[in-house]
Write a structure and sequence with these properties.
alpha/beta, 16 helices, globular
Length: about 350
């Protein structure tokens, strides 16, 4: 059994709980939040009150564990836990030998253990993938285009707000995603702050988001983008420095700059497919008249390949910001020079 979206997979979990869950669940997605949400859906289904012990739910990364230790854990009978969930993360980092051993386990899986495997990618043509589909359930979420990702995250955010008993003005959550980016973990943090800010009030407004979220001046961030897209390195560096001097977090700037790149990438893709302004407006209704013409000219001038490479460079810089002690201003300057140089 295989699913390609979390909604259908979630319905399966609800319908199969508690007696018809499969012994193997293989979860595949490039997005860590998807993997976490899909894993926790099983945990919450079996332990809705969250009252499970470490013996009942265990989670280990594949890169830091020996496969034999994992197999021993899976095959051990535990008299203190009638039903166990073992989440084995990042199995795409296993060696071929370890993958083969895990593949053998799938054929004779312990019925008392529900094994959840997560990975960013797994080759659909392998015996391992086919066995997992035959003996269990696969959730394999295809990687989205940047603009598809933005739309799906906005929809996810609306659903989350509704589940939490709140409502939002029509453009409020879209504005939040446009400003913050599509990192769902970060968006969840922002939404929780907004909930605290509005208290018992049900409706979230754009004013609420602007008051409490990590917003920056929209004109300033678009000025930075325009300087980059016109290859004006000097102005782009000055704009970036001004934003940092105003104590805007670099991660916030990177997410908003990425959102700009994703917008322009979609415009370029539409134009490259031989479609015109009307199709662009269908996707971006706020672009009209001279603003629309300006954005199209900027997109064509900068070029499709530069937008693709630019998103990768922004992602690389974000990773460095999160994982190193490098000077943030230096990282920002290096990125701007790279993006704004022909």
């Amino acid at each position: 059994m295989r699913f390609d979206n979390i909604r259908a997979y979630g319905k399966h979990i609800q319908n199969a709980t508690p007696n018809h869950l499969m012994p193997i669940y293989l979860l595949v997605s490039k997005n860590d939040h998807d993997l976490s949400e899909a894993s926790q859906a099983i945990v919450k289904a079996l332990f809705p009150k969250g009252d499970h012990s470490e013996m009942e739910v265990k989670s280990l990364p594949a890169e830091n564990t020996q496969i034999q230790d994992v197999l021993t854990e899976l095959n051990t009978i535990n008299i203190f836990a009638k039903k166990r969930i073992f989440i084995y993360r990042n199995i795409d980092k296993l060696t071929k030998t370890a993958t083969a051993a895990l593949e053998d386990y799938i054929d004779k899986a312990n019925p008392d253990v529900l094994l959840v495997l997560t990975a960013q990618s797994v080759n659909k043509g392998t015996k391992f993938y086919k066995k997992a589909e035959k003996q269990g359930v696969i959730l394999d979420i295809p990687e989205e285009k940047p603009w598809q990702r933005e739309k799906s995250v906005i929809n996810w955010l609306h659903e989350k707000v509704q589940r939490d008993g709140k409502q939002a003005e029509p453009r409020a959550l879209e504005a939040l995603v446009k400003q913050i980016g599509t990192d769902q973990n970060f968006l969840e943090q922002e939404i929780e702050k907004i909930y605290c800010y509005i208290g018992d009030r049900k409706l979230i407004t754009i004013a609420d988001i602007a008051s409490i979220s990590s917003f920056v001046n929209v004109d300033s961030i678009w000025q930075l983008g325009e300087s980059i897209f016109s290859f004006n390195v000097s102005d782009a560096l000055k704009c970036m420095k001004s934003l940092l001097d105003d104590e805007v977090p670099l991660l916030t700037l990177l997410r908003q700059l990425r959102s700009q790149y994703q917008t322009y990438l979609q415009i370029c893709t539409i134009l490259a497919a031989g479609q015109g302004k009307d199709e662009v407006v269908k996707h971006f209704r706020y672009l009209t008249g001279n603003i629309l013409n300006k954005k199209i000219t900027e997109a064509q001038s900068y070029g499709l390949n530069r937008f693709k490479k630019g998103i990768l460079k922004i992602d690389e810089t974000e990773l460095k910001v999160k994982s190193s002690a490098a000077n943030l201003e230096f990282l920002a300057e290096m990125l701007v020079v790279s993006l704004a140089t022909k």
